[in-house]
Amino acid sequence: MQTPTTAQIRTAIEVLKKLGERINTRAGNSVMQLSETPNGAHHAGHIEVGAIEQTSRIETVANQLKQWRNELGQDSRQCVSHHV
Asked: For tag attachment on the chain, is the N or C end more exposed, with fewer CB atoms within 10 Å?
């Protein structure tokens, strides 16, 4: 496996952020379309919980990518200092 560049990881993080925004937007739109009945409120709760779970997973992966990006940055700085 070829190690991605820090720019590629940065792009992946941005894509994940956009995905999280999309999930929240779609969930919000779905909730707004539901009727104001007990059943509608129950379904809205499920939609909101699902969106929260998905965005939490996305944030976890994005944070892992940020950590990897930082490690790659440190590795490249160490390589430069060894070559100097």
From this structure: N
